[in-house]
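Ticket #4471: complex job returned nothing on first submit. Input attached below:
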Amino acid sequence: MTTTTTIVTGGKAAARRSTRRVEPIYYFFLLPTLVLFTLAITVPGIIGIFFSFTDSIGLGEWSFTGLTNYIAIFSDPAILQSYLFTFGFSVATVIVVNVAAFLLAVGLTAQIRFKKALRTVFVIPMVISGIIIAYVFNFLFSNSVPEAGAALGIPWLETSLLANPDLAWVAIVIVTAWQAIPGTLLIYIAGLLSVPGDVYEAAGLDGASKTQQLLRITLPLVAGYVVINVILGFKGFLNAYDIIVGLTGGGPGTATRSVAMSIILGFNGGDYAYQMANAALFFIVAIVISLLQLSLTRGRNTLS
Amino acid sequence: MTALNQPALAVEQAELSLPAADRSRPRFRRVGMERVNWSTTTILVLCSLTVLLPLYVTISMALKSGTQVVDGNAFSFPSPISFDGFVQAWTLTKFPVGLAISLLVTAGTVVATIILAAFASYAIARNWDRKLFRYSFFYLLAAMFIPFPVVALPQIQLTGRVGLDNPVGVIILATMFQLSFSVLLFTAFLRSIPLELEESARIDGATTWQTFWQLIFPLLAPMSATVGIFAFLYAWNDFMMPSLIISDPALQTLPVRQNLFQTQFSNNYNVAFASYLMAMAPAIVAYLFTQRWVMAGVTQGAIKG
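Support reply: We reran it on our side without changes. The output follows.
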């Protein structure tokens, strides 16, 4: 898409464009950002990949070890567990968030009272820091939920979810969803509002029930928004860190340790190079998912 | 059924709550015999308790006295109402310092993201036929593929080595991570601005610098709002990056300061919750006053990005 060459009049500007010389000011606009970006992201990325082929512990001497780190990763049960946890948690959270947000959006675009107030309330979690809300829920899961469990006589609720290696992930899904629903909800509301109303009138005249309308008309018409929400959500949840730190700290044991968390802990554990190899793999995973996103959303929301 | 449509539509049109054209669709859920769908309203009000209850617990715990709070009952009403928690939290977490640093990091990230992304996007959009600019676009965009944890460890080392292991370093890194998304939004928007508009400014003798500030930047305002809101939410709420990059605990942001109550003072629940509340409140209050723009901005950003 060339934006030039259409100008016939206007002396200077046209002349400058026809000789295709770039005004120096444009370099001033772009280059500092490029340099900063390179120093802040590209260089650290290259350093990380470089050290993933060494035995560095983050400081001091190191030597090349080739693919040793990468080979070790594939037979490391702790790494495997962190990937399984991260993917399982992300899938579960994506489902919970999208189902809840879609139903809420349907409700919030219906003929209801207090529409404005309800929307205001449902969006609040978006502006609260994940770590802080995790601390609040940490208290609830450790004190209030077990109390309620005891009062209701539900044995598995009587001890804290957070201390249960098999169920701690449920708590993380709940809090992550609590915070992620508003953003998803807003996108679904926009999607639902873009569906022309007369479609429903026609369906109503043809005798379609409300449930049929929801499943056969609404859902297909907002399918593009579902794709956006699922992928944006999934990409975000793969990086889960803050909320896990606030709820379980990766425990009990390493039951809820996400990939992001194990990479970060590489600094303390002295296996810097090893975790950089892990980071490189995680990067590849992120690229694959992003490419998937591009191929799925192409045509729906291209640039321009 | 159809007879009920018209009044329903009228109500819908009258109560435009979002700028995004609510009027485009009349009701479609069960309406029963009246215009207002009370069953859905009731369900939604009950659902809203999932948001309101944790907030109520935070507020009521914060207002309890140190003796009442030890019973661990989250839902009881504070009696007597005590502000001890706030007083102690204020000094324990050095709240004013934390707030100042959080505000600095957030404002710095928002301003830097808007300006740098608008600069870069303008240069890219107006020189799209030049390889340098076109490739720069894809280069900056590639950061969308890079999650922070992937480059975090080398960044911690580098910032430490060049003396940026402080809030300024966080501003720079946070801005760079916001850049790709922001450049994507800005360039898309810039391409929709007719070139003739700029040409007429240039004919009047404006330089590119003047054209940018007097014509382009004001036109970008709606996109700047979206970009700014995303940068705000990220910078204000983030725990991971400041906790890793800022090495001096005295210079930490508000969210990171809250871990004080996980290590020490873990039984002083009233102090902890007062501290949480003070850390949450500024963003919630800001949101309540700007929610129209926040909702519109987030929607626009997510759909176009």
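Residues 44-82 of chain B form one domain. Closing as resolved unless it happens again.
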